[in-house]
Design a protein that fits this description.
With about 425 residues, the protein is of the alpha+beta class. Helices cover about 20% and strands about 30% of the residues.
Length: about 425
């Protein structure tokens, strides 16, 4: 019997440099867990061998370029668990796609290609891409980070290579404040330590006797719902009751997903931004059954009286921990992963989307840019595409936020270009 937290589907992303073997690894997981049909396998044969990478590089543009551009989601399951894989691009110019995939992931598998490293050298340098991806998933608070050291079947001394690369990863993680959940030597091509640990009879291949990558993933917890934070609920849809004969409650249901905390009838809520208060008279499930709801679940909330609430408003626990004077939220210190082709400059205006609320924001100033290879904060006046930096934003109207370190929901928003409507940046509140 599994714990509840392990029993639900695990959403994980794979990240690594171009040609590190991500597509091959995902292909291997799909084939060895029998998630791929035989006729599909027949279609990706290359001179008698199954080309695992072709299974996953679905976009024709990717097949032509031999790289993964978009985030593709794959589904497979074992007897123990269901999985959703987000295959995020490795190219630096697609950092934006990786940010998208990582922001909701429970775990990240960072692939490290042994062949590209000076593996015989105990003081070897990791690739900038490996550092960038590990830093990004850590910045985005992906709860579990697993390093899979790939292609160790192709080096002369796999045990030495694994030892040196693992040492370099541990040193880097310590400097960067990253907690490594697990580290595993693999050959995605041969399937060693991916699903099974038999490895053609070499059970202690690379001197490693731990679990396979799949066993590690089967045991990882899903992201805990933010139930330790006071209740918050972004209103997505307002539904009017047709039967308005009931006078003990308001005539509308507010639908959305509980962002933080939990909700039950009898709680007093405050509406943001209007500040009105009301008591919860009913909490409904999607099938309209009365049911208390916690963070991460959708709910319909009926209040005890008519209050003015529309899409984009928030229902919040009264006088909760983060309900300070809204004035203080007019200026936000943020970390931004910039995704637009146009650089981020001080003075520019954007739309910010927080929950379902749209607010105009102005870039006050770019404080610094994060050097993804050294973690140093560098002087900067703009953020180029795919750069990450510390930026002060001024909001036209206040927002109810928490630091991203406390809430992945309340501490995140996106910036949207007012003219092109393109998503320009992922914002984490500091």
């Amino acid at each position: 019997m599994h714990n509840d937290k392990h029993f639900s589907a695990l959403k994980f992303i794979t990240c690594g440099s171009v040609d590190d073997g991500k597509s091959t690894l995902i292909g291997r997981l799909l084939v060895d867990t029998k998630a791929v049909l035989q006729d599909h396998l027949a279609g990706v044969q290359r001179s008698g061998e199954t080309d695992l990478a072709l299974l996953t590089d679905g976009l024709s543009a990717e097949r032509e370029q031999g790289i993964t551009i978009d985030v593709a989601y794959r589904y497979f399951n074992t007897e123990a668990r269901k999985f959703i894989i987000g295959d995020a691009p490795g190219h630096e110019q697609y950092t934006r796609n990786m940010v998208t995939a990582a922001s909701s992931a429970d775990a990240a598998v960072v692939l490290v290609d042994a062949i590209k490293l000076d593996w015989a050298n105990p003081a070897l340098q990791l690739l900038p891409q490996t550092r960038r991806h590990a830093l990004l998933v850590n910045l985005l608070r992906v709860p579990s980070i697993v390093f899979a050291i790939n292609k160790l079947d192709a080096v002369a001394d796999p045990a030495l290579a694994y030892q040196n690369i693992a040492g370099a990863l541990e040193k880097f993680a310590q400097e960067a404040g990253i907690r490594i959940t697990a580290m595993v030597p693999i050959s995605a091509l041969k399937g060693w330590n991916v699903v099974d640990t038999d490895n053609h009879g070499q059970s202690d291949w690379c001197g490693y006797t731990g679990p396979s990558l799949l066993s590690i993933l089967e045991d990882l917890p899903v992201t805990p719902a933010e139930t330790d934070v006071a209740f918050s609920f972004p209103v997505q849809w307002v539904e009017k009751f047709h039967d308005s004969g009931v006078t003990t409650q308001g005539r509308r249901v507010f639908w959305g997903r509980v962002a933080t905390g939990s909700i039950a009838p009898g709680q007093t809520l405050q509406v943001f931004p209007s500040g009105q208060t009301a008591v919860v008279s009913q909490v409904l499930s999607a099938t309209r059954q009365p049911q208390n709801k916690a963070a991460g679940h959708s709910a319909g909330i009926v209040l005890d009286r008519e209050v003015d609430v529309s899409r984009g408003d928030w229902l919040l626990a009264e006088k909760s921990a983060f309900f300070g004077a809204p004035e203080s939220q007019r200026e936000l210190s943020t970390t931004i992963a910039w995704m637009d082709d146009e650089p981020l400059l001080a003075g520019r205006l954007y739309w910010a989307l927080h929950g379902h609320r749209w607010v105009k924001v102005k870039v006050q100033r770019v404080v610094h840019r994060l050097n993804v290879n050294t973690l140093a904060e560098e002087e900067a006046t703009e953020l180029a595409p795919n750069a990450i930096g510390h930026v002060i934003l001024a909001l036209q109207e206040p927002l109810m936020t928490l630091p991203f370190a406390r809430s992945r929901v309340l501490g995140a928003m996106v910036l949207v270009d007012t003219a092109t409507h393109k998503t320009s940046g992922a914002v984490l509140v500091n």
